[in-house]
Amino acid sequence: MVLMSSIVLRTQIPGPKAQELAKRRAQSVPRGIYASTPVYISRAEGAVIEDVDGNSLIDLAGGIGVINVGHRSPAVVDAIHRQADRYLHTCFQVVAYESYIKLAEKLNEITPGTFPKRTFFVNSGAEAVENAVKIARFYTKRQAVICFEDAFHGRTFLGMALTSKTHPYKAGFEPFPSEIYRIPYAYCYRCSYGLKYPSCEVACADALEGVFKRTVAAESVAAIIVEPILGEGGFVTPPSDFLRKLHGICKQHGILLIADEVQTGFGRTGAMFACERYGIEPDILIAAKSLGGGLPIGSITGRAEIMDAPGPGAIGGTFGGNPLACEAALATIDTMARQDLPARANALGERFRARAAKWQANWSQIGEVRGLGAMQAIELVRSPESRVPNDAATKHIIQYCYERGVLTLNAGSYGNVIRILMPLVITDVQFDEALDVLESALSHEFAPSRVTTGVTQ
Q1: Mutual angle of helices 323-338 and 74-84, in 10-degree steps
Q2: Cis peptide bond N-terminal to 30, omega within 30
Q3: Positions of CATH 3.40.640.10 in the chain
């Protein structure tokens, strides 16, 4: 048995019970449901997951950014229990309840912008995307939507149309909805225009005017949907003036700016919403993931005149804003404020970057370290000169980590980015322990003997 302060390994990963569950899974669950790790959970607390074989692992994945307030946050669990003792479901459109209204009021208050707002609730990030576009089209009476290369906006048909990455998300599912136009993101490490920031003067934002002349007329565009920091696209962090320029162009042409904060939201970037870090006030902001503290809920918050444009019955859904999810979300927002988790995100980000800077100095295969707050990542390449994505090394490192008690995730269109999405309640000791394992994985993967013999190739 390997015993450390939080990581406890009683068996190999996966252990015998996990392997048995994997066999059952293969016989009952479609193979299209990908398994990024072979871990099967039995319980969790804070930033630690215990698997069915009694192994304890540190979680740097956070359910893909859902558990910002930690696994089984006491306030969230208490709120769920209290609500479960009262009622589970009525459908807000049939018999309404106060928690839905309170949560809408709270989001109207905390999202960027001092203008009047309205909020309604759905079940997921993809559903929030669908509704944001639906409302934008209704309000503007325009059809086109502009999105970005390397973006991810969900797995519904409109979500896939807006998503950039072909495999595994899009290939074979065509055709997609029309009037979707894609432009390059401010991915400075892999600039689509071969320029350098800041001498480029953020040409990728200014290029939008060319799109209006060559691809789709500005007066036909209802909205531009953008992740303030790319999520699945590799935690690409744009220059500070990219989003401001983009927003200015939108205002000039009467185009709505939709901020997809499904992954960046709720403290992850060092503010409740990443838009605050960039100084922009989007016309519509969508959230999900960590909003519910572990329960499924998505939100669409926007300017009152935009959100009120569709008439009664035009938006909604049976389960959107479920009472348990609303109470969990209210407890999540309260916990974020009470524990000042955005500030904690900044501290965690600084802690990671200090370590990652040393890694980059030691291993040239770390092409870039990037992020904002606790939304941090490293991009792996075969060499700093070629910048060829090293997805094979990424897979090896993720496996090395989970076999030694740390859960991590990859990202990026090329699958060569390692991202961290740990609960913001993780302790310094736990975080350092996890980073020690990640550092060991990098050292093992990029040992001279392995690289020269082509193992990482």
Answers
A1: 150
A2: no
A3: 76-338
Per-residue pLDDT, 457: 46
Where in the chain do CATH 3.90.1150.10 domains reside? 2-65+340-452
Q: What number does CATH give the domain 2-65+340-452?
A: 3.90.1150.10
Q: Does domain 76-338 have CATH number 3.60.110.10?
A: no
Q: Is the separation of the CB atoms in 390 and 347 below 8 Å? A: no
Find tokens 């329960």 and name the residue. 295
Which H or E run includes 410? strand 409-411
Helical residues (DSSP H) of 55-197, grouped into ranges: 62-65, 74-84, 98-110, 125-140, 157-162
Residue 97: CB atoms within 10 Å: 18
Q: Residue 173 corresponds to which amino acid?
A: F
Give yes or no for a contact between 442 and 363, defined as CB atoms under 8 angstroms apart. Answer: yes
- Which amino acid, one-letter code, is at 12? Q
pLDDT for 449 equals 61
CA angle 426, 346, 116 (to 5 degrees): 110
Could you read off the pLDDT of 180-194 as tens digits, one per residue?
999 999 999 999 999
User: Which of these, 343, 185, 189, lies nearest to 269 by C-alpha position?
Assistant: 343
Spatial separation of the C-alpha atoms in residues 356 and 362, rounded to whole Å: 10
- With a cut of 60, say whether residue 455 has pLDDT above it: no
- Taking residue 339's Cβ as centre, other Cβ atoms within 10 Å add up to 17
Q: Cα–Cα distance between 304 and 100 in angstroms, integer?
A: 17
Q: What's the pLDDT band for 42 if we cut at 50, 70, 90?
A: very high
Residue 122: closest CA among 93, 145, 147? 93
Residue found under tokens 């480029």: 200
Among candidate residues 264, 290, 232, 287, the one with its CA nearest the CA of residue 425: 290
Token duo for residue 248: 């200015």
- Please state, in angstroms and as integers, the Cα–Cα distance from residue 322 to each residue in 92, 291, 298, 326, following that order: 8, 13, 11, 6
Query: pTM of whole model > 0.90?
Result: yes
Structure token pair of residue 399: 């496996």
